[in-house]
TrEMBL record:
Signal peptide: none annotated. Residues 273-466 form the Major facilitator superfamily (MFS) profile domain. Pfam families: ATG22 (PF11700). This is UMF1 family MFS transporter. Keywords: Membrane, Transmembrane, Transmembrane helix, Transport. PROSITE patterns: MFS. InterPro entries: Atg22-like, ATG22/LtaA_families, MFS_dom, MFS_trans_sf. It comes from the Bacteria. Gene3D superfamilies: MFS general substrate transporter like domains (1.20.1250.20).
Length: 466
């Protein structure tokens, strides 16, 4: 049922528990909706697909011949880059991240000046799903697919900022952990289910009379339909609320950027919010780099086949679904901050075991994936919940744009570290283990955050357990 009430001033959650639960269920559905883009498109399918298109454009008929280091991709207007075809995917990913870092502050500030965040969420999600659907048609050359992939990434990131801004508006302080964990867990489940279907489709392409490329394009189209369809269901129960910034009226991009600048300066008066962001940059960097570079570590250092990687990805997705809820249950007993610190300690142990993994041992690699899945969803969802308590009311989208910038920007630090260590050692084993430093530094900074003081400083309610 769609909320028929107009935008409400103040931004506080409904006093009616039934109304809150209805909005929360809608909010969960968007995590279920958007996760398929990151899981199937970004993590598994688009990299090999773009590399195949780029290699064909560079005159390499197959993956083996595309390993020739002398191959250069002719990028119109950017020939000076001398891109190798296999470097197209990471280059596009970097470009998308940089564009998000530039655009997120504007989107966050403008959303906080709007009384209709639902429209923003719907527009970004439908735009992203439309770009993803366009990948189905992008089979001739790499340029169209590259532009669509970057745009879909950009719109996905914008939608997440607006989506996260709803969290303080649909849940009380004591409900925050449960709601954040549930959304994250259902996102992992939705992503895992559709990924399983896509892997069956791609691996059975020959028997279905399809080429691998055709099967991948069908998977792209199904992601677009899933993302768009469930988004429509997600936004219906949500209600627009707005704070003091939106009460002043609309804001253009210039005014939004000036407001964002004032927000950044204002963070000096909220040292615990700032300290939390710094902590998040480091421990999240460790998480993202561990996930990102697990595949080359497995194939190059451990000598594992693609089948083992696919199996491990699915295991991580399904275990992360259960792990998010299990971590949330632990947080209700121990407190959120203690639980996140404990999760970081587990991450340090898991990453440290990478040094001892023997080559060719599929079972131990999958076991490591199980361990990662258990703490992956819980660490990130509880971090989101903690940060939501440190945001002044009415500034949710602005602050969550900083949260997303911290998420995106931190990937550079981990990638740089891995690049340097691989260059020095020739392999990924030491590079992965070196990521322990990010978890240690992030944990120390998080330990220094005084949550109760920070929550009271921004005028929010302190939950029963911290």
């Amino acid at each position: 049922m769609e909320s028929s009430a107009g935008p409400a001033a103040g931004g506080a959650p409904s006093a009616d528990p039934a109304e809150r639960r209805r909005e929360q269920r809608g909010w969960y559905v968007y995590d279920w909706a958007n996760s398929v883009f990151m899981t199937s498109v970004v993590t598994v399918l688009i990299g090999p697909y773009l590399s195949g298109l780029a290699c064909a454009s560079a005159g390499a008929p197959d993956a083996a011949s595309c390993l020739d280091p002398s191959l250069v991709l002719d990028v119109p207007g950017l020939g000076f880059l001398n891109l190798h075809p296999n470097s197209l995917y990471p280059a596009l990913t970097t470009a998308a991240i940089l564009l998000q870092i530039i655009g997120l502050p504007v989107v966050g500030a403008m959303a906080d000046h709007s009384r209709h965040k639902k429209r923003w969420l719907l527009a970004f999600a439908l735009g992203g799903s439309l770009c993803t659907a366009g990948l189905y048609l992008a089979s001739d050359g790499y340029l169209a697919a590259s532009v669509l992939f970057v745009l879909a990434n950009l719109l996905y990131g914008f939608s997440i900022v607006v989506y996260n801004a709803f969290l303080p508006e649909i849940s009380t302080a004591d409900e925050r952990d449960r709601v954040s964990v549930t959304g994250w867990g259902l996102g992992y489940l939705g992503g895992a289910l559709l990924l399983a279907a896509h892997l069956v489709l791609v691996t059975s392409a020959d028997s279905l009379g399809l080429t691998t490329g055709e099967a991948v394009r069908i998977a792209f189209a199904s992601c677009a339909v899933w993302w768009a369809g469930f988004t429509v269901l997600a936004v219906r129960p949500l209600r627009d609320r707005y704070g003091a910034l939106a009460a002043r009226g609309r804001s253009g991009p210039g005014a939004a950027m000036r407001q964002f600048g004032r927000t950044v300066k204002d963070m000096r008066h909220h040292p615990d919010s700032l300290m939390f962001l710094l902590a998040f940059i480091f421990f999240n960097d460790g998480i993202q780099a561990t996930i990102r570079y697990a595949a080359p570590f497995a194939t190059q250092d451990l000598g594992l086949e693609q089948g083992a990687l696919i199996t491990t990805i699915l295991v991580i997705q399904f275990v992360a679904f259960a792990g998010a809820f299990a971590t949330g249950a632990v947080a209700r007993r121990l407190g959120t901050k203690r639980t996140v610190l404990a999760s970081i300690a587990v991450w340090i142990g898991l990453v440290g075991t990478a040094w001892f993994l023997p080559a060719g041992n599929v079972g131990m690699f999958i076991a490591l994936g199980v361990g990662i899945g258990l703490v992956l969803g819980g660490t990130q969802s509880l971090a989101r919940s903690m940060f939501s308590l440190l945001i002044p009311r009415g500034r949710e989208a602005e602050y969550f744009s900083l949260f997303q910038i911290s998420d995106k920007g931190s990937t550079f630090l981990g990638s740089l570290t891995v690049t340097v260590v691989v260059s020095l050692t020739g392999g990924y084993r030491m590079a992965v283990v070196s990521l322990i430093a990010f978890f240690v530094l992030g944990g120390v900074l998080l330990w220094r955050v005084r949550m109760r003081r920070g929550i009271l400083a921004v005028g929010n309610e302190v939950p029963e357990r911290l």
